[in-house]
What does this fold into?
Amino acid sequence: MSIAQNSKVLVVGGSSGIGFATAALAAKEGGDVMIVSRSPDRLAKAAKTLPANVASKSLDVTDAAAVERFFENSQEWDHVVVAGSATNVGPVRGFALEEAHAAMSSKFWGAYHVARYAPIRAGGSLTFVSGVYSVRPSKQAVLQGAINAALEALGRGLAVELAPVRVNTVSPSLTVTPLWDRLEAPVRDKMFKDKAAQLPAGRVGQAEDIASAILFLATNPFATGTTLLIDGGDALV
It folds into this structure.
C-alpha cells in the first residue's frame, strides 16, 4: 500500500533521519507533506533536498501550548507521524536527572501533545517511533527502554480511544542517521560493523527501511494498536 495522492501528511521530526526519509517517501508517493522540527536551520537544510511538495514549519512539541496553537486552525490530517526526539542515554545512576526528564519530555510527552491536539480524519492514522530497547533492555539505556515501552503502551491505548483513527508504533534497532555523525568516523563505523555482525539480518537499519514500515502501517486500513519491530532481529539476540 502507498500514500493516496494528495493525502495530507504531517511528519514531526521530519528535518533529518527517519522523519526525513518518511517525508521524502510520502512525497514521492504523491502525498501533500509538511515537516516540523524545533530547529529552523535543520528545516531549511532539509527543504533544499526534499521535493517541492513538502512544506515546513518550526515547532517544539515539548511545549504543549505551542502544539495546541499549531493545531488550533489546522487542516485535518490524513496521516501524522511522530518520528523525531532529542534524547541522550546513560545508566540510571549516572544520568543527570535534568537530562532524564528532558528525554521523557521530548520523546513521550512530545508524542502525547501531538496526539492530544492534532486533528486527524476518521480512518486516518497516527504513527509513533519507539525502539527495540522496550523489549530488549540495555543496561546503558534503561530510561530509553522505559520511554519506548511507555510510547508503545500509549499507542495501544490511543488506538482504542481515538478510533476510527488508527494508531500504531514502529520499533527500530540501530539505524544509520545523522544522529551518529557526532561520533568520530572510525568509532561510528566500528559500531555499525559490530552491530551488523550481531544481527540475524546481517546489517544495521537504514532510515528508508523504517520509513517504509511507517507508511505501511499508516496506509493499511486493518492495522491499529500494532507495534511493529523493524530491528533486523535485534530483539531475538
Notes: The mean pLDDT is 95. Residues 8-227 form a domain with the Rossmann fold fold (CATH 3.40.50.720).
